[in-house]
Amino acid sequence: MAVLSEGPPVISVTALAGLSGAVRELFGDKVLRQAKHAAMLDIEMIEDQECFIPQLSMTAFLETIERRSGEEHFGLLVAPHVTLANYGWWGRYVLAAEDLGAAIARAVSTLRYHSTGDRMEIAREGEVARLSYFNAERGQPGYLSIACGTAAAMISLFRAFLPPDWRPRRIELDVPRSWAASRFEETFSCPVEFDAGAVSVCFDGDLLDRPATRRTELDVITIEDVARARLGPERIDSFNGVVLGHIWAQVLAGEVSADSTAQALGTSVRSLQRALHRDGAEFRDLVSMVRATRAKELLKGTRSSITDISIQLGYSAPANFARAFRKATGLAPQDFRRRVAPSG
């Protein structure tokens, strides 16, 4: 099967971990519902899952929160709670390095396992070093929250290895200067510069040369562990891979639609279907394939009833689920479960 074009940038949904709860606490259920509706995806259902969503879904979610809440600096409110430790297998792999320099090197070299379209760089000039993050969605509505979250995640990397009183020399943000500049400095506990070329943390370069004091337990994680994450970078860098990734996210959230996928990819349903058709694929067939894969996992790994599984997968009735599963696998759900059940 020929590869179409390179897919739009995607990001692990774990970058939004805990955000839905913060929105509900700060602004109430209505704002959260509006944000999920704008993204056409129930972010709250999947924010701790190892799956990828188009970055347009993330910006739609954040922009709606900012607009509906009336809080343009929403990113500053949640920044103190953002941590790389919540960024799934990739975040855990970065933080499992032996020292700060090794952790930064891991983050820079393996970012593709967390997002596509973004990049990181580390540079050193004299006494000052700069860790920079270049966001693919720079300039999009909702980007101010992304920039704040990016800075907070990078700071959390440093604080996992350095003493509690450590502070950056400064933070640089690639957003226009804000009328509330002092709020940024209070949040990040250091000077903040605006209109930069990337989101950067500037720090004493000698921190890269000496062993750091770990503030977290050493975790044994390999890059192979990270690569096994659902629909990893080897599959999400193509158009069809991004479509599959978004379908997987929707299946986990319990509702799948071509409209949601098209919006997340910045295209129309007709254009989406036409692009898939040129590659010999149909949207509904991809949905059936992903649902069957997830159904096998649930039938094998849980004791959930057939009815509950059908609901989780977004089927309107258990009979519809059973019919689709038999078509995909040749077995009824109950028969498949009996076959894979452990003996004894």
Structural topology:
Elements: E1 10-12, H1 19-27, H2 29-39, H3 43-46, E2 52-54, H4 55-69, H5 74-78, H6 88-95, H7 100-109, E3 119-125, E4 128-134, H8 143-159, E5 170-172, H9 181-188, E6 192-193, E7 199-204, H10 223-227, H11 233-236, H12 239-253, H13 258-264, H14 269-278, H15 283-301, H16 306-312, H17 318-329, H18 333-340
Parallel strand pairs: 5-6
Antiparallel strand pairs: 1-2, 3-4, 4-7, 5-7
Helix pairs in contact: 1-2, 2-4, 6-7, 12-15, 15-17, 15-18, 16-17
What does this structure look like?
- By secondary structure, the protein is α+β, with helices and mostly antiparallel strands.
- The chain has two domains: 10-226, H-NOX domain (Alpha-Beta Complex), CATH 3.90.1520; 227-340, Homeodomain-like (Arc Repressor Mutant, subunit A).
- 51% of the residues lie in helices and 9% in strands.
- It has 18 helices and seven strands.
- Helix 1 (19-27) packs across helix 2, helix 2 runs antiparallel to helix 4 and helix 16 (306-312) crosses helix 17.
How helix-rich are the residues, as a percent range? 40-55%
- Overall geometry comes to globular
Mean pLDDT: 90
Helical element count?
Answer: 18
CATH architecture of the largest domain: Alpha-Beta Complex
Low-confidence stretches: 1-5, 230-234
User: How is the quaternary structure best described?
Assistant: single chain
Supply the CATH class of the largest domain: Alpha Beta
Query: How many separate domains make up the residues?
Result: 2
